Amino acid sequence: MILAQVQQFYESLGHHPRHELDTFQRYFPHDYSLNEIDDETAQAFIAHNPVANQALLLGINIGQQVIKARRPQLLSAQHSATFGHFAQKEIGGQAQEQLCVAMVDTQLNVIGWEVVFVGTLTQVTASPREIFQRALKANAYAILMVHNHPSGNVHPSAHDLSFSQKLFQLGKTMNLPLLDSFIVSQQDYWSMVENQQLERLA
Question: Where in the numbering of this chain does the MPN domain appear (predicted)?
Fold first, then answer.
């Protein structure tokens, strides 16, 4: 039962909860009763304590909606070309370097895209900690990293390669794999997995 939370709700409003809990249990004897509320039952329950009981039912309804909510799927990352073209449209034309992380679920659907760092015209300083924090917060299965080269040359620098390989190894250790690292411009993209610069994970 959720009686402990209901009791806490009434106590937070300054009500003595015993009477309120008795009323609540009379109308909603089981947890599943809250999923079957009709308008007549709701109005009858609210009438016992109009302000508090209406607020309680609204809170329960909000909780039910939150449980049903899912992150939107932006696109599938199963094919690197599809994802590369998406990343091009997002940051390929930016005048400053940006580093973004795409978060994917177990079906490789992109469920989150966040700009993690913005740098100068030629470089961006990134922290693995910040990248993985974003992914953990989103409860992601895996990540893809993307940054742009405003120069238009998408070939990775030595720093690009070493940083991506470092993230790849950290991801394996954390069981939050880096699936690929992309460099994009307005005209092109570069996938390190496609070009055998990162291991392709099964």
Answer: 73-198
